[in-house]
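INFO batch 0412 | record 1 of 1 | parsing
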Amino acid sequence: MNKGADVISKSIVGTDFRTIIVNGKGYTIYSPTIHALSGAISYLCNVREGETLKDILLSIADLKYHAHALSWFINGDDSLFDELSKGSYEECVNGVEEAISMIDISVFQKAVGLAKNVSLLAATPK
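INFO prediction complete | emitting C-alpha cells
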C-alpha cells in the first residue's frame, strides 16, 4: 500500500494517533486538523532556523509557547494550557515534535512562514 493510501485509511478508521506523557499524565494526539494546526502555529511562529525539527522547536526557549501549541494539538483549543505548563520543557517540546511529525514537515514550515508574513503585514502600517 502506498503512503498516501495508508494515511487515508488510518485517518478513516481512527488509528492515526500518538500518545505522549506530560507531567505524569497521558494525552492522545490525533492527526492535526487545519484548525488545530492554525492555533498551534500562532504560538510557534517565533521559530528560528535550524537543521532539524528539534533544533527549530528548541529555538523557542519559553515553555508557555510549547504548552499552548501542545494544547491546540491535543484538544483543538487552549483549554489544556494550565495543565500542560506544569510539565517539563522537554516533555512539551517532545509532544509538539510528535504532533508535528504526524504531518509533512515542509507543510508545517510553509505554514509558519505564512503566519510570520501575515503578522508582519498586519503589524506594519503602509
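INFO post-check: The chain has a mean pLDDT of 81.
INFO record closed
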